[in-house]
Amino acid sequence: MSTSPAPSVLFVCVHNAGRSQMAAAFLTHLGGNQVQVRSAGSAPASAVNAAVVEAMAEAGIDISAETPKVLTTEAVQASDVVITMGCGDACPYFPGKRYLDWQLEDPAGQGVAAVRPIRDEIERRVRGLLAELGIEAAA
Fold this sequence. Notes:
Blueprint: E1 8-13, H1 19-31, E2 36-41, H2 50-58, H3 73-77, E3 81-85, E4 98-101, H4 112-132
Parallel strand pairs: 1-2, 1-3, 3-4
């Protein structure tokens, strides 16, 4: 049993209403208590995209109670890995952090049929991230 703290991952997109919410939900669902998960947006929306909530429900993950959160310097400083998704230069940079940029289509304004392939690609990438972190994904 390892005594090292769980790695911390921050997902950032502009509105924190779609991609970053899906990624955080998948990482929480698949990584359990083996990883700390945060998500935020550089310009948060007022609510999570309804098509995103529906697409995640189809995958068995309920994110209906989630709310978009504003990106803070503290959230970045507290994270080991920062994954951006189309937020450009809005994310503060700190040396020693691992930064990844996931180029993914923005689900904003799209229906659930268009969100499904984005959701599936995010799940694939989250599973890959877990493997890189040495964490076995939950079944």
